[in-house]
Input
Amino acid sequence: MSTTTKVSRQDIRKIIFDNYNDTDVRFSNDEILAHLVEEERYRAMELDVLDFEDVLLEMEASGMLRPIAQNFNTRYYRLWGQVEQTSCKACGKTTYFVPSEEGKTCPHCYATL
Ligand SMILES: [Zn+2]
Output
């Protein structure tokens, strides 16, 4: 979990929570990218889906994302469970996790949740 990335894990989780938080909904890395580039701090970065592939792979490994199809660099997912918005008990900041995920770590203070 120590890989560095241009895109924050928290931002991707919030996009999924805000837009795709239903286990019946299929969404893709291209769609997540479209939401990311609407945000001011990512607009000038010319992001590609490969820039946050490591984050999505982590979310597959932890049991949040269920990969269902792939077409070249486009990957399609569903959620294993609904994402819940909670506050970290250590720092009080907002986090977004599927309750059944393994190895939940606060993206702000790195406390184990
Ligand atoms: Zn925290």
Remarks:
- Helices lie at 9-19, 29-36, 40-43, 53-61.
- The domain at 9-81 is CATH 1.10.10 (Arc Repressor Mutant, subunit A).
- Residues 88, 90-91, 93, 106, 108-109, 111 surround zinc ion (CB under 6 Å).
- Residues 105 and 111 are 6 Å apart (CA to CA).
